[in-house]
Structure formats: structure tokens, C-alpha cells
Records
---
Amino acid sequence: MKTIILDLTGCKSLWDIHERIRKAFDFPDWYGKNWDAFWDLLWSECDANKVIIKGEQTIPKEYKKHLEIMHSCLDDLIGLRKKYEKYVNAPFTYTIES
């Protein structure tokens, strides 16, 4: 099982959030740093079984809606992997730690 740790502690901008995502998920340098690009690479390239998200409470309030979008993408990946579990032997989950 592969676990990704996404530490968002101290991110001050959406660019910071996406740069942390790029590094944690080992996305290529050409990652588009938007939620469509995140979803595209998440479902097609992510081989992790679990993501641990840390530091969300440090994100400025104006970016909290972006965390909801990120969570929605992660929830969608859970559903996608469950739907195709007989073809993909890679269950997926994520947790949020304080």
C-alpha cells in the first residue's frame, strides 16, 4: 500500500496549495495547478491507496472552498475505484489530520 502525505501547513495562496499537491503526488512539472488538472492526474496517475492531509486548519479562510473541491475530487476517486474494483485492485481512502 502506498500512502501520500499532503502537508498544507502554512500555504498562503492557491498556487501554494497546488504546488504542495504537485510535490506530494509527484505530478509532473507541467501540472496545470487547477482542479481540472488535479482530477485528470488524480484518477489517471495516482497509484496511492491513501492520502493523509495535514495542515488544513492553517489555510486562509478565502481558500477553504478550494479544500472542499479537493475533498470532492478525492471522494470521486473513492467512488471510481469502488465502481471498478474488480479491474483495479487499489482501494483508496483519505484522512484529514489536524
Note: The chain is about 45% helix and 15% strand.
---
Amino acid sequence: METKKYKTVDSYLADFDGLAKQRLHELRAIIIEIIPDAEEIISYNMPAYKQDKVICFYAGYKNHIGFYPTPKPLAALAEKLVKYKTSKGAIQFPLDQPIPKTLVKQLIKYRLSIL
């Protein structure tokens, strides 16, 4: 089966429903609040926000929302991420919990500070 190729964030979000759609919209709003001038693009077939470089990506999954602010912000704020599943460059936000707005803002602000 061929993976659908997205051209816009709106088309990406349109393919979700229920809690996943709600959480994706929550995360999108937080990102836009922090970096309103960033270009909203599709990169690696998921929503991304770019100024000179890509600042962050996110994606929806069956049980979580993946947020990808790159490795350095996650390493710098590791003590605040202990209750979430993380990898080198990603954090998973469970669908059954609201998106942690303050944490997302801190991760984005850190990312912006090192660009």
C-alpha cells in the first residue's frame, strides 16, 4: 500500500478524527502562538514549521502525538520530560492527556535560541 503524500498541513489534519485530531489542532495552535511568522510546511510527510531552518515537526499516531523539536531541546530539558516517552529527537504525548502547552513552548523557545 502506498503512503499518501501530503501537500498542506490542512490536508494532513483532515485525515484524522476524534482525540487525535483535537490534539493535533492543540499542538498546531501552540506552535503558531510561539512562532507566528514561521512558514507552515510539509516535510518528511508531516507538518513542520520553518524560519531559516525547520524548528519542529509533529505527527499523529494511533495512541499519541509525536513532537520533534530536534535533539538539543530534548537534551536540555530532559528533567521536564521524564513522564513522557522520548527518543533522541522526539517526544510522545499520549492522546488521553492534553498537550502540555508550557513544555511545548519551552522546547520551541530553546530550539529558537540555538538556531
Note: The chain has a mean pLDDT of 96.
---
Amino acid sequence: MGRVLVALLAVVVAACGGPGSDAGPPEIHYGRDLCVQCGMIVSEPRFAAAYRLPDGTERIFDDLGGLLIYGHEHGELDEAEVWVHDVETEAWVRASDAWFVATAARPTPMGYGILAFSDRERAETFAAEVDAPVLTWEELRTIPADEIGVYDE
């Protein structure tokens, strides 16, 4: 009987997964939590972003550009589960499912100008308004850290 309970417990633990396993986005206490990159208070959900590492470590940012720079500098982007907010709805979305527009035409808290959208059509409409390309997460994350925030106006 003991072996059956141990086996059942192992199945339950495996089903739950490890830290960060489909746990959803990290929690941010707006107006209180600090951005890991710049130390400013995270106060605007539409620009906030976060990621979780496989060991459960969470990092939050007040600007998506800060997340990219920090992730590049610390070599964490490849293993991180990254979450961003849709700039219009403020809903959380996995970065891998989002569409991005990088433009100097719209200010963000730290001036990086990277906006996330959960819907490609809305991203394309906005991008056409500011004459900027729509990027996937894979395209965005390959921008070198020293080029984040450097866009034509």
C-alpha cells in the first residue's frame, strides 16, 4: 500500500511540474514593486513585462526594453518564460504569442518604445500608423542590447 501511495504522489508531483511550469505570469504589485533593470517603481501595467526562470526566479520590469537589455546582459532570455502586457488591453500574454512594434513615436516609461499586442491585426494597424515593422518575439529578442530603443522617428 505504501508503494502505491508513493507512486501516486510521484504522478501528482510530476503533473504539477516544477517552478514556473504553466504557472502564469509573475505577480506585480503596481506602485510598489521595482524594475530589476532601472530600479524605478513599476506603475503602468500596459508597459510592464516579466519573466520566470526554470528555478522559479522571477524578474519584473517597467519597460519591455529593460527586460530585453537585462535578459541579454545576464544571458537569461533563452531559458526564461517571458510575459508582456498587451499595450491596449493590459492583458498578460506570453511573449512567444505576442506581436511587437518598436517605435520612437510612442513613449514608454524608460523610452525604449517597444509595444506588445496580443493580436497581430491590431499590431499591424498600429505599425502602419507609425511606419514601423511588426516583429515576433524571436525577431525582437535578437536585437542587440545596444540597439534597443534606437529607432528612426
Note: Confidence is low (pLDDT under 50) at residues 2-20.
---
Amino acid sequence: MHVLPDLHGQGIGTALFISAMAFMREAGYVSGMLGVIQANERARAFYERHGWTVRELRDNGVEGMPVAIYEIAL
């Protein structure tokens, strides 16, 4: 999920997040996982505000960038 910087703060990310969570629940998933580049503090704060917790930190993730792996119970 990505929201263009010019559109930050308008609730677009939250709307996408709510829709994605509903989709996963309706599909029968009991948990979700995602990866975020560790240096992306804005994205990490967003997910943490919405109940995601860090499960693992990987030094070599997306294109060699360190990644934080998040998990949430649905």
C-alpha cells in the first residue's frame, strides 16, 4: 500500500487500511503479516497506530534494505 506524499494526511491510507482489513476478515484470515522498510518511520508509525506489532526485524529485505515484519490478529 502506498499513498503519494502530496496526499498524506487526507485519510486515504486509513480508508485503504480499513478496506484491506475487512477483505482479509471476510476471506477468513485470522491474522495478517506485512513488511515495511525499517527506515520508513511514517509507515511504521501508521501500522503501529492501527494495532500491528513487530514480529521480526530482517537485515536483508526489500532490495537489500532492512525490513520490519509486522503481524496483526484479525
Note: Residues 5-73 form a domain with the Aminopeptidase fold (CATH 3.40.630.30).
